[in-house]
Structure formats: structure tokens, C-alpha cells
Write a structure and sequence with these properties.
By secondary structure, the chain is α/β, with parallel strands linked by helices. The protein has two domains: 184 residues, Glycogen Phosphorylase B (Rossmann fold); 156 residues, Glycogen Phosphorylase B (Rossmann fold, 3-Layer(aba) Sandwich). It contains 14 helices and eleven strands. A seven-stranded parallel beta sheet has the order 3-2-1-4-5-6-7.
């Protein structure tokens, strides 16, 4: 039997890998053999991506930062990165199923004969940063194949005008479109005229029991506050310090997630470098409180019934802000008040109980809608 070809992001990021794992596992539960398409882009396409100026700017800044880190913080930063990379690789090797490697566009197009249909997965697959590779657009797939998007995210609240035509072309070719954020429904409609369905992130398709099967044992005996900050806002870390001190709890933090953050060095009581995917789940599951600016840390706080506080990674005024991913989820479960807006009182948020039965009721409604979308979109 031919397989479903999955187009999924698999960068070494906790949420990215866990959503890829969840979608693959759920499709398997539905009876669909599937694999993640392992595509190595040509050098030309890699260079083409640099035409997106924000990406080029971030790469240039990153190069200067790498030089700085190698001089002043090499031992600290490299230890964290190398240990974490090993942990990610072990999980990916044990839990994700990939295709053979397809090198370049010709091999990728030729590979289509190995599949009966295709699903482009969740996460920020339609972010303008990914447009240059022309992979998650599904443009390489011939017209006759069934093409489905599941919980795809634009990652931004506004598409740059110079890319609107490209978005219109590839969105019009996809047979069934579902998105992760409510804002994305409007984006799809305004660009392509097509109706998109809002569905849950793949991580919410699996049950708490499913996640506990791959969750490691508790890493610490003491009670703790868990922090997962992707942004580099020092004020957020100071806020957690004050709260943990008053609550008599230790701080556990995953340091230097997307970049080196100097304040992470002496911020937490525990900053384990070996945290893989199973350990990440455990740190949330066994925490007293979770503080985060991450969408997926918020998701797992809901799954494991944890009191949590969300903070803004970006200023809401930015058209490239990804805060909408979190606020959209909080709106679905009527927990908008867990997002700490500027000037709001932390105590008013953290001490308020969460009605998790009501949360799960709301999520179950959207989950049923999501399951129905997949059942109706995929060809048996």
C-alpha cells in the first residue's frame, strides 16, 4: 500500500518535533501508513530564501553573535547545544519515521509516485521565511494528487504584500485547508477566496495518556516553577525570580532556547542541559507552575493541567508577531486572562484557579471538528 507523504518541519525545537510526532502517530492510529518526506534543498533554493530580508538580517546578526559567543561563552553555550542536540537526535531516531533522502527538486518531484496523497503539517509551515524553499507550498506535487493542510500556521498576523500572489497560487492548489489560528481563516479567505477550517494543533489530537507513554520520570524531587522562554526578555526572568522567592519554590529553566541569553546563566536554580523531548514533557507535567512565551508549552500545560502564565515574546504591534498563536488558543478555552499583558498583575493571574474540566470540554469540541476534517479530507 502506498503511503501518505507528510510535509513537516523537524527542526530541533521542542514544539516542532512534538507536533510532527503527534500528527504522524495520529495518522497511524487512523490506519494511514505515512512518513515524513526528507527533502534536502538545493543550494539555489537555500540562497533564494535570503531574498526575504528579515531572514537575511537575522542570519547576519546571528553570524556576529556566533563570533561573540565563541570568544566569551563558548564553554557554557556549546555544552548546552551539544547535549541538547544529542537528546533530540535520539528521540527523532526512535519515534519519527522518515522517507529516503530526496536531494533537490527533481528527486522530490519524482518521489510523488511513492505516495497516494499528501498532508502538510502544523507549525509555521507557511511563514514567509519558508516561502523561498517552495516545499511546504506543495507546488511540487502534481495536480491529480489529494493535497491536505492540517493545522498549518502562517506564524504572522499579516502577509507581506510582495508575497500575496505567491500565497494565492499555492493556496488555490490545496484541496482541503485547515489552519491552527482563527486569524489564519481570514488570511486564507482574503488571499485565495477559499474557506479554511480551524483545527487543533496535532499535539492536542493525542490524549494525556499518549503523552505520558513517552514522558520521562520526574527529574527533581523538590517542588519547582518551570520556565520555558524563547524570547530574551530579562524582565520576564526577574518576574519569575520574585514569584518563586515568595512562593518558596526553586526555578527550573531550559536555557538558551533559540539564542544565547546572558541572563539565563544565573537565572535559575536548575538549568539542565540534557533536556530532550521526553524530559521536556516531564518538566511541565511535574511543575507546580509554568511560565512561558511558547505556544506548545502552553498546550502541554493544558494537557497536564498545570497553572501557567503566558507572556509576550514579541510586541503586539509587530506585523511579524507570533503571539497570535497563543492568544488564539487561549480564546478557544476561555483563558485569555492567563496572558500577562503589560501593566497587569501577576498575582491576579497566577492565583486564579483554572477550570480544567471546562477547558477540556472546549478542546474536545474543536478536537471532534478536527477529527472530522481529517476523516473527510483523506482518501481511504
Amino acid at each position: 500500500m502506498k503511503k501518505v507523504g507528510l510535509l513537516s518541519v523537524y527542526n530541533h525545537n521542542y514544539g516542532t518535533i512534538l507536533q510532527a510526532y503527534a500528527l504522524q502517530k495520529h495518522l497511524q492510529k487512523m490506519g494511514y501508513e505515512n512518513e515524513i518526506i526528507f527533502y534536502k534543498k538545493s543550494k539555489f533554493l537555500q540562497i533564494k530564501r535570503l531574498l526575504y530580508i528579515p531572514l537575511l538580517n537575522s542570519i547576519i546578526r546571528g553570524k556576529f553573535k556566533d563570533i561573540y559567543l565563541k570568544i566569551f561563552y563558548k564553554d557554557i553555550y556549546q555544552k548546552v547545544l551539544m547535549t541538547r542536540e544529542d537528546s533530540f537526535k535520539k528521540f527523532i531516531d526512535n519515534h519519527l519515521k522518515f522517507s529516503s533522502i530526496y536531494n533537490g527538486r527533481d528527486e522530490l518531484i519524482s518521489s510523488c509516485k511513492n505516495y497516494t496523497q499528501f498532508v502538510v503539517g502544523s507549525d509555521q509551515v507557511w511563514h514567509p521565511l519558508n516561502l523561498g524553499s517552495d516545499f511546504f507550498t506543495m507546488n511540487f506535487i502534481p495536480e491529480q494528487f489529494n493535497k491536505v493542510s492540517y493545522a498549518s500556521s502562517f506564524g504572522v498576523s499579516e502577509i507581506p504584500s510582495k508575497f500575496l500572489k505567491k500565497y494565492q497560487v499555492f493556496l488555490s492548489r490545496i484541496n482541503h485547508i485547515s489552519v491552527r489560528e482563527s486569524d489564519a481563516i481570514d488570511i486564507v479567505k482574503s488571499i485565495s477566496g477559499k474557506n479554511a477550517v480551524q483545527v487543533v494543533d496535532p499535539t492536542l489530537l493525542l490524549s494525556r495518556n499518549d503523552w505520558e507513554e513517552i514522558c520521562s520520570k520526574s527529574l527533581f524531587n523538590e517542588k519547582y516553577v518551570f520556565c520555558y522562554f524563547i524570547g530574551n526578555n530579562e524582565e520576564h526572568r526577574d518576574m519569575v525570580k520574585n514569584f518563586a522567592s515568595q512562593a518558596g519554590l526553586k526555578i527550573v529553566n531550559i536555557p538558551h532556547v533559540d539564542e544565547f541569553v546572558k541572563s539565563d546563566i544565573d537565572f535559575a536554580d536548575e538549568s539542565p542541559a540534557f533536556v530532550g523531548l521526553s524530559e521536556f514533557l516531564s518538566l511541565i507535567k511535574n511543575a507546580e507552575y509554568v511560565f512561558t512565551d511558547s505556544f506548545h508549552a502552553t498546550v502541554f500545560s493544558l494537557i497536564f493541567r498545570k497553572k501557567f502564565v503566558d507572556v509576550a515574546r514579541f510586541k503586539n504591534t509587530s506585523s511579524q508577531s507570533t503571539n497570535s498563536r497563543i492568544t488564539s488558543l487561549l480564546k478557544v478555552v476561555n483563558l485569555e486572562d492567563r496572558f500577562l499583558n503589560e501593566g497587569a498583575s501577576l498575582n491576579n493571574i497566577i492565583n486564579k484557579d483554572i477550570d480544567f474540566e471546562q477547558v477540556e470540554k472546549q478542546l474536545s469540541i474543536l478536537k471532534e471538528k478536527s477529527l472530522s476534517f481529517l476523516e473527510n479530507s483523506l482518501i481511504k
